[in-house]
Design a protein that fits this description.
This protein is of the alpha+beta class. The chain is built from three helices and 14 strands. It folds into two domains: about 45 residues; about 160 residues, Glucose Permease (Domain IIA) (Distorted Sandwich). Helix content is about 30%, strand content about 30%. This is M23 family metallopeptidase.
Length: about 220
């Protein structure tokens, strides 16, 4: 009798032990799979990590200075609209962040360079209107679009410092016809791009960088 009870107890113990082992192995595999997936994801995207470091090292000032005499009256606002859908010119994604003017008046809000760099591109684009592209020391391309006009001395190839005037916020663009205005409210479209190792240009969300630069605004006299 005792042998039978002991044998039955041994069988139950072995079954339960194997069951526990199976559960432990199952959860171990889940944890390992999650860890491996994360490691593979990071190892496949070294450029994404590098670009974040490059941007943080280059940015100095918020692209729209504050008014020296009326900060509330000449305020700006923005939300994280990166990769939201856009329809003009065909279905596409929004590769940037729109900084909206508190006063809907073109040519009123100054736009400054967030970093040191070289003026790489200027001129009219169908989507961006009058735009400026600045290439920073770390190779980041900062894109400023929908300007009403440029700073008088600004030309392609010149070096700029962080805080230098690039132009003024406007509502140009959304047309093949140069100088078109009024298709949308006055704002600055601000974009961040970097060339990947394979030569492809990739856009990055400007919103977290703009949030950081909130504490680094210049003061300009608004006429």
């Amino acid at each position: 009798m005792y042998r039978r009870i002991f044998a039955e107890y041994e069988i139950v113990f072995v079954v339960r032990y194997k069951y526990v082992i199976c559960i432990v192995c199952f959860f171990t595999l889940i944890v390992f799979d999650a860890w491996l997936s994360e490691e593979l994801w990071h190892s496949a995207q070294p450029d994404s990590r590098n670009v974040l470091d490059a941007v943080w090292e280059d940015i100095v000032y918020f692209p729209i200075p504050e008014s020296s005499f009326d900060k509330k009256g000449y305020s700006v606002s923005y939300t994280d609209s990166f990769m939201q859908s856009r329809s003009y010119g065909g279905e596409r994604f929004h590769e940037g962040c729109d900084i909206m003017a508190g006063i809907n008046e073109r040519g009123h809000y100054p736009v400054v360079s967030v970093s040191d760099g070289c003026v790489e591109k200027m001129g009219w684009l169908k989507l961006g209107g009058y735009r400026v592209g600045i290439r920073s020391p770390n190779g980041v391309y900062f894109y400023y679009a929908h300007l009403s006009d440029y700073a008088p001395e600004l030309i392609c190839g010149m070096e700029v410092k962080a805080g230098d005037l690039l132009g003024f916020m406007g509502d140009t663009g959304y047309s093949e016809v140069e100088g078109t205005t009024g298709q949308f409210p006055v704002h600055l479209h601000f974009g961040i791009y970097l060339n990947e190792a394979d030569g492809e240009e990739k856009s990055y969300d400007p919103y977290p960088f703009l949030q950081e630069l909130e504490g680094h605004k210049l003061e300009f006299y608004y006429e």
